[in-house]
């Protein structure tokens, strides 16, 4: 184990065991270096790594603190690695996404407010009205974010946002088949939003799962092995 790894795992252990609590300032460098048996350089690199993961927050002029360790924030850091997935790995993630999108859609159907439903249909109308694939992708993203938000679990919403962020790198609407795919996607959105508006969790879950499965099929059939493009 390298000195940096030793410092990284040592700090992580202190946080995991509660010795360093959420929001607490970490001990001075000299004390940590002595306890962990590492140099200042190794400790600082470990701190940078933990900061990138959202575990530690350096505050200019104040010191370095353990973050609030909110699940949704820590899950968001998965994007650092998930963004590297090639298409075959992303397609494996879609199996997870189908289950989770169905779950949050069912929850949204039970919990959505009139304001949420109005927002969903407004986003659909905007998607149907635009000819810009980039704008359509952004509106699609906002539509699914709104459903996840209505589902009431910020951690789950954060995880799905990470999954969708990688999906958006693959743009199928700009392909020759794009207009037909857009029409199908927009129709799927209306079915899903209608199920939520009807307060029908079962129908909402089924519509969400079918929509994600359709996007997965498009990616399998139409996308090149790896292209850093933006989603359906």
Automatic annotation (TrEMBL):
CDD domains: WHTH_GntR. Residues 1-69 form the HTH gntR-type domain. GO terms for molecular function: DNA binding; DNA-binding transcription factor activity. PROSITE patterns: HTH_GNTR. SMART domains: FCD, HTH_GNTR. Keywords: DNA-binding, Transcription, Transcription regulation. Pfam families: FCD (PF07729), GntR (PF00392). PANTHER family: TRANSCRIPTIONAL REGULATOR, GNTR FAMILY, UXU OPERON TRANSCRIPTIONAL REGULATOR. This is DNA-binding FadR family transcriptional regulator.
């Amino acid at each position: 184990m390298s000195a940096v790894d030793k410092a990284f795992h040592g700090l992580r252990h202190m946080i995991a065991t509660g010795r360093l609590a959420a929001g607490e300032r970490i001990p001075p460098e000299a004390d940590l270096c002595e306890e962990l048996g590492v140099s200042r350089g190794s400790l600082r690199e470990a701190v940078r790594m933990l900061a990138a993961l959202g575990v530690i927050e350096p505050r200019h002029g104040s010191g370095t603190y353990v973050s609030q360790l909110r699940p949704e924030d820590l899950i968001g850091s998965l994007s650092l690695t998930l963004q590297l997935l090639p298409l075959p790995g992303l397609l494996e993630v879609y199996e997870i996404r189908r289950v989770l999108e169905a779950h949050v859609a069912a929850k949204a159907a039970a919990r959505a407010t009139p304001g949420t439903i109005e927002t969903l249909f407004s986003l659909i109308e905007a998607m149907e009205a635009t000819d810009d694939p980039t704008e359509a992708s952004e509106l699609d993203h906002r539509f699914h974010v709104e459903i996840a938000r209505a589902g009431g679990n910020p951690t789950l919403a954060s995880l799905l946002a990470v999954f969708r962020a990688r999906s958006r790198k693959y743009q199928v609407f700009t392909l020759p088949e794009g207009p037909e795919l857009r029409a199908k996607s927009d129709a799927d959105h209306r079915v899903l939003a209608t199920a939520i508006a009807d307060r029908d969790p079962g129908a909402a879950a089924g519509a969400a799962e079918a929509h994600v499965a359709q996007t997965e099929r498009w990616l399998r059939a139409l996308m090149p092995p790896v292209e850093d493009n933006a989603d359906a």
